[in-house]
Structure formats: structure tokens, C-alpha cells
Amino acid sequence: MTLKRYSKTEPKIFAWFVVPYTVLINLLLFGYCVLDSPGYFFLRLGISLLYFMLVYAVFGMAAVLVKRRFPGDHELFRRIGTFIPLFSVMNLLTVQGLYLLYEKLQPAGCPVRREMEWWVTAYGCLASAILTFINEAALGWEKWKNSMTETNRLQSAYQKSRLMSLKRQLHPHFLFNCFNTLSSLIQESEQDAGKFLDELTKVYRYLLKGEEEQLVSLQEELKFIDSYLYLVKTRFGTALRVIIDVGAEESKKKIAPMSLLIVLENIIYRNVFSKTQPLQIDIRTEQSLIIANTLQPKPVTGDGFDQEEALDDLVSKYRLLGRPEVEIHESLTRRSVIIPLIELNELPL
């Protein structure tokens, strides 16, 4: 069984601290006569070190329990306010236990000095307080380093997100299909061709705008998706079925721009569908935004763009924003992507 540590550096701090602490506490217990014989000195030092190693394990478990009770950075003073009286009582018991141990063993040489027990206790409490502040500083340093590492990782993911979004905007496969469809519409109906071109313009206008904003309203995103789905449905017809059921209140909440586009592209480009085997997509809200679809996976994606990577990119983007995780649930026949909706009052001032 591995003992839980207050911080990663806690054992190193104790290792540097325990020897000088034990030497001084033996001087308080026995006086300078403990130095008369090297043999007696090292005997008492060894006994005390073993004793304090056991005590350290108990103190460490108590510290971990307090940290578990008050884990937040904003609860620092509550932790320290709990540590000081708790460790004071534990130090009193530790010193009395040490006196009883030496009185029981009665090692050769000078006896323990009972008249110094309050000085020894005060020294133990002072040492515990110093160790508490050192360990808190070490814990804060660890959190800062981890935070910087995570920030750098997420910043890298964000830059990758921007690059992938740009690649998605300029991706020729989508444009080729749109122009192909537009060419057919021009021959069939100039009115339909004009409508198609108008929706295509709306899509690319939103794509360019989306790079400038961290969050947009779900209502705004859905307007964009209406234009995108118009283009896609014009191409695929009844082979693609999309049902959108979003309440008015939920539509006012915020999401990362192009979140729906990433999920819908993933669904459309990674599934095979036809008029006889249509692809069903349901978009609804239940506190979060849920995009569910039937699974009819293609053997090979064939579009030259890794849609799963784009979905991973969306997950990373929400982590960077410090928001709840994007969840993905998949069975043999169905897949659901759950995107958290952000309330207006959650936005930073």
C-alpha cells in the first residue's frame, strides 16, 4: 500500500529536515551530555529517527485528510488554520510518547530531562508550522508548474485548432461539391442556383467571422447550420434527414463557434447513406446540446481530411476555454456528441 503524499516534494523536504530536527530535539531532551560519547549520540539519533519516521507517516495522513477536506487554492487559510491546532495537539502527544519511549528503554548515558518537555513541545510545534508553510509553498509551486504545462499544451492545441479551422475553410473537397451542385442548378433553375449561392456566401461569411470570436449564441450557430444544411441537403436530398429541436431559452446560451459544423462534418463524411438507407441526425437540447446520429460508417473516409482529429480539436478547444468536457457516447448503431451550453452569467467580465 502506497502512502498518499501532500505534495510530490514532501518526502524530500522531510529527508532534508529530519536529521537537523532530530539532533536539536535530542539536545533539548538530554542536554550537552548527549555529545559526550559518539556511540551514545548515534544510538539516540537512530532511535529518534525511527520514531519520527513513524510519526511522520501519521502526520502525513492527517495532512492529506485536511487537504482532501479543503482542496481549493482559495481554502489555503482554512487548511493552515486547521493544521496549526491539529499539529499542536499531535506534537504534544508525540513529545510525551518520545519521553515515555526513552524512559522505558533507559539507554546508557545521561537521562532525559523532564523539566524541558514544554520547550521540546514548543520546538515541535514551531517545526511543524515551518514544515506546513514549506509544504504549502511546494504544493503551490507544483500546481503552478502543472498549470503552466497545461496552459502551454492547450495553447498549442488552440493554435492547431486555428490551423485546422483554416484548413477546413479552404478545404477544396467541400467547395468542389458545392460548385458541382451549383453548376447543375444553374442549368435546371436560376432561382434555385441563386438561393444556393446566397446560402454558400452565408456559410463562408460565418466561417471567417467564427475565427474572431471565442463564443457565439446557439441561435447564431443554428442560423449558420441552416445555411450549411441547405447546401448539403441540396446535394444529398432525402438521403439526409435532420431534426432540430432547440428551445428558445437554450438558443440564447453560448457555444464555441463552428462546434456544430465540426460534429456534422464528422457525421456526414464518416458515414455512408442513400435514399434507401438515409442518415438520421437529431439535434436537441437537454441542458447541453446533443447531436445524435445513426452509425453507418464508411470503410474509408476518402476526403483527405481527418474528421476524428477535428472532433478531438473541438474537445481541446473546450478544455482551453475552461468549460465542461465535450462528451462522446457511441454504441454499435448510434453515436451522440454532447456539447456543454454556457450561460450568459458564466461569461467572464
Please, could you describe this protein's structure?
This protein has 349 residues and is an alpha+beta fold. The protein folds into 2 domains: 10-151, no CATH class; 171-346, Histidine kinase-like ATPase, C-terminal domain (Heat Shock Protein 90, 2-Layer Sandwich), CATH 3.30.565.10. The protein has helices at 10-30, 38-69, 76-105, 117-170, 172-188, 190-210, 218-236, 248-251, 259-270, 307-320; strands at 216-217, 240-245, 254-255, 279-286, 288-294, 327-330, 334-339. A 5-stranded mixed sheet has the order 2-4-5-7-6, covered by helices on one side. The protein starts with 9 loop residues before the first helix and ends in a 10-residue tail after the last strand. The mean pLDDT is 79.
Structure summarized in a few sentences:
This protein has 349 residues and is of the alpha+beta class. It contains 10 helices and 7 strands. The chain has 2 domains: 10-151, no CATH class; 171-346, Histidine kinase-like ATPase, C-terminal domain (Heat Shock Protein 90).
